[in-house]
Amino acid sequence: MTTGIVLAGGLSRRFGSPKAFAERDGRLFWELAHDALLDGGCDHVIISARPEHLGRYGGADAITDHPEVAGAGPLAGIFTAMKLRQSDEFAVLPCDMPGIGPMEVRKLIALADEDADVTAVRTKDQPIPLFSVWNGALADLIGEALARGERGVMPFLASVETEWIDARELNPDLSVFSNMNRPNEH
């Protein structure tokens, strides 16, 4: 079973307003990510959200970080989702990558290395660690890292078996993997 996690709990400081509720082509970023995961092969999708936004996700399964890891970044969102919803694997997609659709998700899940702890995407120049597939058994390791104050995704990925796949295997148009940090970028 594959469960999707939409990371929508960031502060959006550079963006100036919550990215989850920004729009592209009349659809909210969180909706685009949710549907990409669901239509891309996930059996269920969770929204990792800020507490003050919980009521803004319609009927979606929205959660907030466990109190002991609240505010500790994307690892906290992934950890909380893994602790609250058991699954064999988790496909992770940040809400601020609205160009990623079901095709890219489907290909990532299909290419995920079942022997790796995490399969993540990269371009020639840049890792895209949060568009990734995580083994469902990683929750305790993530929790231990967070308890030590280790919040960085890249250091965590370096501490486990991570397989990196070339983004061009998912889509030769690398612009779909763009992260939106400012309102005028979308």
From TrEMBL:
Pfam families: NTP_transf_3. Keywords: Cytoplasm, GTP-binding, Magnesium, Metal-binding, Molybdenum cofactor biosynthesis, Nucleotide-binding, Transferase. CDD domains: MobA. InterPro entries: MobA-like_NTP_Trfase, Molybde_CF_guanTrfase, Nucleotide-diphossugar_trans. One of its GO terms (molecular function) is GTP binding. Residues 4-158 form the MobA-like NTP transferase domain. One of its GO terms (biological process) is Mo-molybdopterin cofactor biosynthetic process. This is Molybdopterin-guanine dinucleotide biosynthesis protein A.
